[in-house]
Amino acid sequence: MLVIEANPQVRKLLRRTLDQDRRFATVDEAGDLAAAFASVAGFRVALIDLDLAGLDGRGVIAALHDRNPSPAVVVLSVTGVPYLRYAAAVEGADDFLVRPDDLPQLTDRIAQAAARRAPQRPA
Q1: Is 81 left (phi over 0), alpha (psi -120 to 50) or beta?
Q2: Which of the following CATH numbers is that of domain 2-117: 2.40.128.110, 3.30.50.10, 3.40.50.300, 3.40.50.2300?
Q3: Residue 27: how many CB atoms within 10 A of its CB?
Q4: Element (H, E) at 46
Q5: Backbone angles phi and psi of 77, in degrees to 5
Q6: Secondary structure of residue 120 in the 3-state scheme
Q7: What is the pLDDT of residues 78-100, one digit of tens each?
């Protein structure tokens, strides 16, 4: 899992939460670096903050979706205003969570997004 979060305190909380749940997390705060790193690594899920230095979260989502296969993308934002949710969905986000309200649902929603993106086996 690739985790991209601008806030150092939230990054620390996410690392604790995701490591507890035995998920691998790589945390980076700069969108440009994260997009470049993701292009060479095989992440199945990306958890992305929209407010990043350099390339913003929507730009990172677009860069990730240029990969084949692209990872499932879950946006984690401090605000859940409808236009941001819509814009993230248009860029290719699979889910949108508002922090701190949606943090208790975080691991379940990540698992659901990953399952939706998992390759389907022929019947």
Answers
A1: beta
A2: 3.40.50.2300
A3: 18
A4: strand 45-48
A5: -130, 155
A6: coil
A7: 888 899 999 999 988 999 998 87
